[in-house]
Amino acid sequence: MISEIILIVFLSFIQGLTEFLPISSSAHLLLPNLLFGTKDLGLSFDIATHAGTLVAVIIYFKDELIRMARSFFTLSSDYAADRSLAVLLIVATLPIVVAGLASSDIIQQRLFTLNSIAVMNIVFAFMLYFAFKISPKNKGVMQLTLVAAVFIGLFQIFALIPGASRSGTAMTAGLLLGLSMKEASKFSFLLGIPTILGALVFLTIDIASTSLSINLLHLTLGFVISSIFAFLTIKYFLLFVEKIGVAPFVIYRLALGFILVII
């Protein structure tokens, strides 16, 4: 019982911390099982932790989300920027939704190995670093076009592969388009809302077709811990991202990748 609670706390912490950092949450959640053969906590736990991170990002960006929602019910020019941002987010979300539906059977088989996770970490660490180095980092989100939003959305499809990182791929694409690190990060976090919501829908559909016993304590712990650490991650990442850049995350991902190759 104690070991299972420790695992729940650890995985919830990992989900909350890594969902919005460019280091791949899905890879980190798979590692304990692949390395140590720990228990798979099941779909219900996945739903609880994803719901926690979703609630965290919604709370953090609640003011922006309210303005975007209102923008569709008014013609006032005061909401033009909010309406444009909402449209950009919708357009950028569509590619991963289509790709997720098309590859859902493959994803559910969890065919990924330590080697594939290692390779993805290394490859996308280099891509993030390359994008950061060549980017002029002088544009804001509102300078994005619909074509640019599609580009970010297409790049985000790689996030379906553990080790690539949803936030990391979105940030990389944003940097390649010239966004500042803070703007690329903010767009990535906002883009996480429909993406995580979509993942929740698919997980809920999957769990509805199975007969699973649900432990409310485990689910509550997963939800609360993941939401708290996700909120703190978003807050402090956006505060310090311009100062820290991508170097710490690139170094970490390269180190993790090479260690997994050696193992």
Number of helices: 12
> What count of structural domains?
1
Rg, rounded, reads 18 Å
Mean pLDDT: 88
> Residue ranges: pLDDT <50 for 5 or more in a row?
none
Which quaternary structure do these chains form?
single chain
Class inferred from helices and paired strands: mainly alpha
What's the end-to-end separation, in Å?
Answer: 29 Å
Question: Which range does the strand content fall in?
Answer: under 5%
Helix content: over 70%
Number of strands: 0
User: What form results from the Cα inertia axes?
Assistant: globular
Order of helices and strands: HHHHHHHHHHHH
Please describe the biggest sheet, giving its number of strands, its sense, and whether it closes into a barrel: none
